[in-house]
Design goal:
- By secondary structure, the protein is of the alpha+beta class.
- The protein has 6 helices and 19 strands.
- β12 and β13 form a beta hairpin.
- α1 runs parallel beside α4.
- About 45% of the residues are buried.
């Protein structure tokens, strides 16, 4: 007998928790954030979130000689308030009534689930990841999500905000990221608020990767060393071929398929997992043209490697009522009859954002593909 929209929706609701968890499994950054416990689900309140940023130790030591010493002031100006806005994005899709009418039996329902809601949510995942690493979300209307690309912007609440990593030496970094001005700015700078950076050149890829890795790892040492690196495929192949076979310690990330290694292949770099990011493409216009960046002034793709200490990264979602605004974690809402059409519409609701509270424990190396 034909499948009704309500029957299909029942199957969708049963599978929704699994699909939501797949997003966290879709990408190693998100997976590690979850493992670190750095997620605030169903956050409610203001449209933005303020979070403490401490770029150094918060106190001072007093040396005691006679026992009458007064403690040194502990009011060091190392505490600041970062700010992040949470975007709201909705991916909508329709299923024709004809497809429902012709679907009969478990196999037909499974096929509908695969080609409509499952395909929709996987594409939504891919759009978000591409925005995160490339800053090209305007192509798919997901530019509200944060981007690592400092030559691009994101727009969660009506104003363009600069991407996280600036492709400059520390002394020249003056962008404002998460509402805090980087330490190289002429005025309003926050000491210690910068990302580590190096530009690679032929023959010294590993040297520059190690340099940024160690500079980032010694910051915020309580969070351990840099534990995740992402790069484009050309950079990865170049690094792989540069290693002796005896020191190639491979790792892999299972991704959404559930088959380990099917989504991302990687290597170990020091203590970090070093992965190819399939979505990362430094030939895109979103990387601008900059002889210090991933895309050179002549427009040629030069590659990039992001280095993240995932203990310093956090995620939050906005929303609480699953029947109304939803919890914002790729929640599925519907179905609703499309007026004037023989079709039913579903919505996938995302209200989620990432932020970093210790920027100097993260870094970037550009032109790694040359």
């Amino acid at each position: 007998m034909p499948t009704s929209a309500d029957v299909l929706n029942f199957a969708v609701k049963k599978l929704t928790p699994q699909w939501q968890e797949q997003f966290y499994q879709h990408h190693p950054v998100l997976d590690k954030i979850i493992l670190n416990g750095n997620i605030d689900k169903a956050h409610t309140g203001a449209p933005f979130l303020e979070f403490p940023v401490v770029t150094n130790g918060p106190g001072q030591v007093t040396r005691i000689e006679t026992g009458s010493e007064v403690y040194s002031s502990v009011r060091r100006t190392v505490g600041n308030r970062g700010q992040v806005y949470c975007p709201r994005m909705i991916y909508s899709f329709v299923i024709p009534g004809k497809d429902l009418a012709e679907a009969s039996g478990e196999t037909a329902i499974a096929r509908l689930l695969k080609v409509y809601p499952e395909a929709a949510i996987m594409e939504f995942h891919e759009h978000i990841v591409s925005q995160f690493v490339n800053g090209n979300g305007a192509d798919n209307n997901v530019q509200g999500f944060v981007t690592l690309n400092g030559n691009s912007t994101y727009n969660p609440a009506g104003s363009d905000l600069t991407g996280v990593f600036q492709y400059d030496a520390i002394a020249d970094q003056g962008d404002t990221v998460f509402n805090l001005t980087k330490s190289g700015a002429a005025s309003g700078a926050v000491a210690g608020w910068h990302n580590q950076y190096a530009i690679s050149s032929a023959g010294n890829l590993r040297e520059n990767l190690r340099d940024v890795y160690w500079r980032a790892s010694v910051e915020g040492k309580q969070g351990g060393p840099v534990d995740l690196m992402l790069c484009d495929i050309i950079t990865f192949n170049k690094y792989y071929e540069d290693l002796d076979a005896s020191v190639r310690y491979a790792t892999s990330f299972k991704g959404e398929t559930g088959k380990r290694g099917a989504s991302r292949q990687g290597l170990m770099f020091q203590e970090a997992e070093f992965y190819v990011e399939p979505s990362l493409d430094t030939s895109l216009a979103s990387f601008g043209t900059d002889d210090k960046g991933p895309r050179k002034a002549d427009g040629s793709s030069a590659g990039v490697t992001y280095m993240l200490k995932t203990d310093t990264w956090h995620m939050y979602t906005l929303g609480e009522d699953s029947g109304m605004e939803t919890k914002g974690d790729f929640a599925i809402r519907g179905p609703v009859k499309v007026p004037g059409q023989d079709a039913w519409e579903w919505e996938i609701v995302l209200s989620m954002q990432l932020y970093c509270d210790r920027l100097n424990a993260n870094g970037v190396v550009t032109q790694t593909a040359l």
